[in-house]
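This follows on from our talk about sequence and fold. Go ahead and set the record down below:
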Amino acid sequence: MSTSSGFILPAAYRLFFLTIEPIATLVGAYFAHFQPQTYLDLTHAPSSPSLCIPLGTQIVLTQLSNLYLVFALNEALVLRATSDLKVWRTLLFCLLIADLGHLYSVNGLGWDVYLNVMAWNAINWGNVGFVYLGAMMRVAFLAGIGMPVGARQHKRS
């Protein structure tokens, strides 16, 4: 992807930010809204309600689903609609901050949720493993790794 601001987006970034991550995020949105019991069971089975999900929890899960949706749309559509490196850098920096908040959100499960990969279930792979990958991709992009020299030296205005 060549842009009017003079940067060429490497294929790995294009594939991850414009396709893979938005689709994966939509999967999270689907489960939070349409499969809330599964979502809660996979997040922390001992505290998941067994009979019926309280209305407040249903509302919060729908709000979470909506946030996942806006995350996916920002990445898939806003980044696809602009060729401005400054917009790319700004949005990806904001998503990096969101990654850190997302990782922090599971800290109540203890250090094993971050470190014990062998014990991870599907939601841990999404909430931790995939977020690690997304954060590393954003750090790499923001650091200019793999970017053409002109894009790495992009002057801020």
Observations:
- The mean pLDDT is 92.
- Residues 32 and 61 are 5 Å apart (CA to CA).
- DSSP finds seven helices and no strands in the chain.
- The radius of gyration is 18 Å.
